[in-house]
Write a structure and sequence with these properties.
It is a single chain. By secondary structure, the chain is an alpha/beta fold. The chain is built from 10 helices and 5 strands; from the N terminus they run ααααβαβααβαβαβα. It has a 5-stranded parallel sheet with strand order 2-3-4-1-5, sandwiched between helices. The N and C termini lie far apart (about 85 Å).
Length: about 240
């Protein structure tokens, strides 16, 4: 039995459009009305899509710290379009180490910075985690490929690592943190790190190697020693 071979038809070619018009006419459907529906752009906001993936508390976060704004500007300028006409994506860029007391607004600024990138039309694949949650996810246990998970976090184009130094210190914590920071340092991937620790405490908590690497790869941003959460609650 001979199988008939038909050349593939490109959607939008003249022949295809003619056939579609005939089908619509046979069904008493106005082609112009269909075209109006097809051509109408779907309402889509890059910022809304990104904010939807954030914790509700930070979905309206606004970055206003001068150094955080400067960071967002540098990352946006370094963004690259993967192909002609495509939206520019975060690829490489600087990192920030935001230090200050609990409630100073560091996490708010971090999420606000990511939202600012979206507002500027920059596509970003990102991930946010607390240091404690990250260690819990990477803790060796049956059925979990910890190395694969570490690789995924290490290669994420943009990472928010919140509350570094809040988890209990150990040799394993120091090793995991060192590997994560070193990989992101080598790949020049932008990382937003928040901490309540001072540099001196960092060295005691994570060791000289991690503290030295963080000093090389990040700009340190000192937040005012004011707990804004308590301030807003009192107001």
């Amino acid at each position: 039995m001979r199988t008939r071979h038909r050349e593939p038809q490109l959607l939008g070619s003249e022949g295809t459009l003619d056939r579609m018009a005939r089908i619509l006419a046979a069904r008493n459907i106005d082609p112009a009305a269909v075209a109006a529906v097809v051509d109408e752009p779907e309402p889509f906001s890059l910022l809304d899509a990104l904010s939807a993936g954030m914790p509700p508390r930070y979905q309206a976060a606004v970055a206003d710290h001068p150094q955080v704004l400067a960071w967002a500007r540098e990352v946006a300028e370094a963004a690259v379009a993967p192909s002609r006409g495509a939206r520019r994506q975060v690829t490489t860029g600087p990192s920030l180490l935001m230090a200050g007391v609990v409630g100073a607004g560091k996490t708010h600024q971090a999420y606000g910075a990511v939202r600012l990138l979206a507002q500027r039309g920059i596509g970003v694949r990102w991930r946010a985690t607390t240091a404690a949650d990250l260690y819990a996810d990477l803790r060796p246990r049956p059925g979990v490929d910890s190395e694969r998970e570490l690789a995924a976090v290490s290669r994420c184009p943009l990472l928010i690592l919140d509350d570094l130094g809040a988890a209990k210190s150990s040799e394993w914590v120091e090793e995991v943190t060192s590997r994560l920071i070193n990989r992101r340092y080598n790949l020049k991937l932008p990382t937003l790190i928040t901490t309540n620790l001072t540099i001196k405490d960092f060295r005691a908590y994570l060791g000289d190697r991690v503290a030295s690497r963080l000093a090389q790869m990040t700009t340190r941003v000192e937040f005012e020693p004011v707990d804004r959460r308590r301030f807003r609650a009192a107001a």
